[in-house]
Amino acid sequence: MTQSFPPATIGYGFSHAHLLGIDPLKPGEIAYLLDRAAYFAELEPGEAPDALAGSTVINLFFENSTRTRSSFEIAAQRLGADVVNMDVATSSVKKGETLIDTADTLNAMRPDFLVVRHGQAGAVKLLSRKLDAHVLNGGDGKHEHPTQALADALTIRRHKGKIDGLTVAICGDIRHSRVARSNLLLLQKMGARVRLIGPPTLLPNSYEALGVEVYHRMDEGLRDVDIVMMLRLQVERMAGTLIPSGREFFRFYGLDRDRLALAKPDALVMHPGPMNRGVEIASDIADDLDQSVIREQVEMGVAVRMACFEALATRRAPTTLRAA
Ligand code: ASP
Q: Quick check: CB of 232 below 6 Å from ligand 1?
């Protein structure tokens, strides 16, 4: 079954061959993906268009993943694709094959899409240059995680009706987080104000150029924000000890009820997962469905990944892209 485009997307387009990050996208392209994803989010699973029928998607994850990999898999299947999960742990990559050789091998299998997660920034881009398939970034090192930022933006838009003009606090381990980077880029492109809150050891080295406000204390940074976005402590990327302990971190930077009370009364609480309860966020806040939209972020992840696959498959020429 093929669905027509809902009116909100007329005049927009998406002409990229790959989805490597938020950085290369224009606001109109982000709006286009969000509009399409909003439409997919309302469909029953069986009602989705078969935009990927006859296509093969390979999921190639060099780093562990639960939600992202299965979300890409479900999204591709809903659009009618065949999906193959390559198990890197048992593949020839572990036997010393270089990334270029892996790309050659994959090319020979003629996939239409390759979803890649890799521990190093730049690896996904390298594969996109070597492969004939559309490449989607499922997270590369500390660099970008574009579909997570799109899922977060869609979740925000569903609750607030807009992104423009909102104030968003991104809290915790910003330095090691590709989610923070992609979100920062997306939110600013779409007109939100961004605050970063964290200890100096977990903030990027130079944030002056990022156009953000920086706070080292939660009770200052959380005041009157519309969105509180918590992050996982990315201990696997930390060289040396940057925080004393999880308990100590929670004391200063964890989100509890008193701290949340400083934000706007209708502020949304977000976390990309996986969560460390009692380290970044108190359990009762994470589970409070009045403000926490953490589960919805996962649900919207499928819808935005469908939108990304479809956009790449159709590669509509930008017609009257908003100049921006
Ligand atoms: N799942 C997200 C990522 O892959 C966030 C995290 O791992 O903390 O970057």
A: yes
